[in-house]
Write a structure and sequence with these properties.
It contains 14 helices and 18 strands. The protein is of the alpha/beta class and 459 residues long. Helix 5 links the parallel strand 4 and strand 5. 39% of the residues are buried. The N terminus is likely disordered.
Amino acid sequence: MKYLIFLMLITSTACQSQQKTIEFSDRNGEVKLMVLAPGHFHADLLQKAVSSRINDSVYVYAQEGVELNQYLSRIESYNQRDENPTSWNELVYSGDDFLKKMLAEKKGNVVVLAGNNQKKTNYIFKSINAGFNVLSDKPMAINKENFKLLERAFKNAGQKNVLLYDIMTERYDILNILERELMKDEALFGRIQLGTTDAPTVSLESVHHFYKNVSGSPLIRPAWYYDVEQQGEGIVDVTTHLIDLVNWKCFPDIALDYKKDVKLLSAKHWTTNLTLDQFTKSTQLKEYPIYLQKYISDNKLKTYANGVINYQIKGVNIAVKVIWNFQAPEGGGDTYSSIIKGSKATLQIIQNKELSFTTQLYIKKTKEVGDNEFKTNLEKVIKKIQKTYPFVSIKSEGELIRVDVPLEFREGHEAQFSRVAEKYFDFLVHRNMPDWEIPNMLTKYYITTSALELAKQSE
């Protein structure tokens, strides 16, 4: 009899789990967002575009202060704009016990996280344990302790049939999409090379700026953004995008195992040094808070925003580098560049002053490939690509051939947030998130947090 009751309990629990998996059926407004502690502008960019899937009522849980006010102000600007205005109804709870309140009230079904990275992993873990789906800004972990907690969060998410996902916008950049398609064609690109430590096969670099405009207005950073214990070092932050692109392009649809496939070779980090005037311009604060005093030397605020990681995945040598400057040069902005070497061709993304800071994709054949063979294979691949992206063409520029995309067919970085959100909502509805996504997210954060430890040891 006891055994029968036990079986009935198991069956009941399984049925409840099944009900959770079919909770989302693509009805209008069924995604109910809970925005938790929105301290980074990426939180509101998820709401910049209209989506029929998202309920207009958004539950916000945060402490009172500048960060919450900035978030609400930008949401209101989306509601009031002339073109494609949104209609968000922000329902705010701003007590000190905001996390406890959110977990208890259970008013939504998707938690959005974009804020203080020191607290983020714990927020993820507790949200998952409460049975919520989580869409998180990067990074989801900024140190080894966070990484171990993140592993537990993913395990618990699987048991509770909820989805944990990070916001990797760069996959939706048209040039990254095209580069991935070109690499998949072995007749054109060949096989990815192994390279060496001194001459890696894959080299990616990203340059960012502390002071810039977002949604047409100067971005005001919270002071904790300059505290690596709260924000995380550059080596564990922006590098998440670079490592994600490496996994996505070079090992497409492959589930990576960080315990077997990854070998960390070296890592180093260094500071960006800011004056008090620059800090004030960025934060609107006239003096440094107490917790930043330990980073001040020679009247400069020194924050470990820069880093380089050299590592291998399945024997392929890879280098990723991130640099943070205070402000971009006139006419410029954040930049990205990459080189990926195949046995038959090398692909290169360039964004610099000579190109007016417009990102361009190039392909160059290796010496081992004949001109006619290369031309034939390239034209064949481009024709295939044009079936989906008819605006793509090729232009010869000496030894390099540009895979050209007119500017009017390129979406900006801010628009890519809605692309990630819609993909995530697809996963919620169809329960079809690829098997490689979770192990590759773990691989990504294993690399960044391990590299941070190595960089500190190498000082």
